[in-house]
Design a protein that fits this description.
It holds the Pfam family NUDIX. The chain has 384 residues and is α+β, with helices and mostly antiparallel strands. It contains 12 helices and 10 strands.
């Protein structure tokens, strides 16, 4: 989700690569030459492989969680790439992951050089019911039209993320429709963002006027032309996770109650990443349930999915409804259960009702939204 900013530097001498990227790559080449001078050519075993897959999956979840909360950092992105590399043992895939890890590290250095750590917000695309911030009087307007709106109040932490998403929405509507009236909506969002930062309209206007006096406005219609360059398009890489909306014989949701150092307790569904050796998503989910719960389940039915995109990575999470047929926690296995820093994975059974789902902090947020709307219907949807 990092903003893609290219410095327009006309300097040569960076291996044919211009701008800040050329400078960083030159520094990296210099450091590599210094390492060879000091230590000589070094060769070590890779030390990577499937033992790191759980940690890679955890890094992916942490990255997606931070993105959903509007709190993505370079640390999250680099950690995900790093652990994805550690999880590979095939030389071709390991090399590809290491290149991607190095590329993210270079982008981070460029970001430091620009003295800009701001992350751009891209509203996630969800399956099922969606949520967005609306003007304060929209619910009563909907009611006046004879419909019943479903609303909630955004929390303090997510309010800024919703406003940033709204900024993109309103700007997109103006670009699409070219209707000057859309600029009023855009301005309303800008004023709300300013207020969230403690800036009143008059203060914002003073800031605007000061910048105009220093740098000018846009009435001159001046277009700054950068160097010509060919940038090959690359499709974002896919990360597919599968998770179980698991019901026991009493109709309760079988969830993990997660307690991790440094964050408030929350709940999540069992499941994990689809691995290359899995026969398919359903086979991957049955494997994950065996690893995490020592569990077997009946037939699976896909009922919900959502996707997110961050920094060239496309995350798809698919949720399957199924009934628990056996559970043996003594059979659960995986490094996450032996590492205190990863917290606890206590099995909790929560009534499959809207009220019960609303009473817990269920991750991810799109799943919580889906279950709040459809919890009562799920038992009838269980496949035979």
């Amino acid at each position: 989700m990092a903003a893609n900013v290219l410095a327009m530097d006309s300097s040569e001498g960076n291996g044919g690569v211009r701008g800040s990227l050329g400078r960083v790559l030159t520094e990296i080449a210099t450091e590599r030459a210094a390492q060879d001078t000091l230590w000589g050519v070094q060769e070590f075993p890779d030390g990577t492989g499937p033992a790191w897959r759980d940690r890679a999956d955890q890094a992916r979840r942490e990255c997606a969680e931070a993105a959903s909360a509007g709190e993505l950092t370079w640390r999250h992105v680099l950690a995900e790439e790093f652990y994805e590399a550690l999880a590979e043992d095939a030389p071709e895939r390991l090399r590809a992951e290491l290149i991607q890890t190095a590329a993210v590290a270079v982008q981070w250095v460029q970001s430091l050089d620009r003295r800009s750590g701001a992350m751009s917000h891209r509203p996630p695309r969800h399956g099922g019911r969606t949520e967005k911030l609306v003007r304060d009087r929209i619910p009563e307007i909907i009611e006046a039209a004879g419909e019943r709106p479903r609303t909630r109040i955004a929390g303090d932490r997510e309010y800024l993320a919703f406003l940033r998403a709204k900024l993109y929405e309103e700007a997109g509507e103006y670009v699409s429709d070219r209707d000057p009236a859309e600029l009023a909506d855009l301005l309303e969002v800008v004023l709300a963002l300013a207020a969230a930062h403690g800036i009143e309209p008059a203060g914002l206007e003073r800031m605007r006027a000061a910048k105009a006096a220093e740098r000018g406005g846009f009435t001159g219609r001046i277009v700054l032309r950068g160097p010509e360059r060919d940038v090959p398009e690359q499709a974002p890489r896919m990360r597919h996770a599968v998770r179980a909306i698991l019901l026991d014989d009493d109709g309760n949701l079988v969830l993990f109650h997660r307690v991790k150092p440094g964050r408030a307790p929350y709940w999540s569904t069992p499941g994990g990443k689809v691995e290359p050796e899995d026969a398919g998503p359903e086979a991957a989910l049955r494997r994950e349930l065996d690893e995490e719960l020592g569990a077997t389940v009946g037939p699976l039915r896909q009922v919900f999915a959502y996707s997110e995109q961050t920094l060239g990575l496309h995350y798809l999470s698919t949720f399957y409804l199924c009934r628990l047929t056996s559970l043996d926690l003594s059979r659960r296995h995986g490094p996450e259960f032996d590492d205190p820093s990863k917290g606890t994975y206590e099995v909790d059974r929560v009534p499959c009702t809207t009220a019960a789902v609303e009473a817990i902090d269920l991750f991810p947020a799109p799943l919580a939204t889906y279950l709040r709307a459809h919890a009562q219907e799920l038992p009838a949807l269980l496949p035979e």
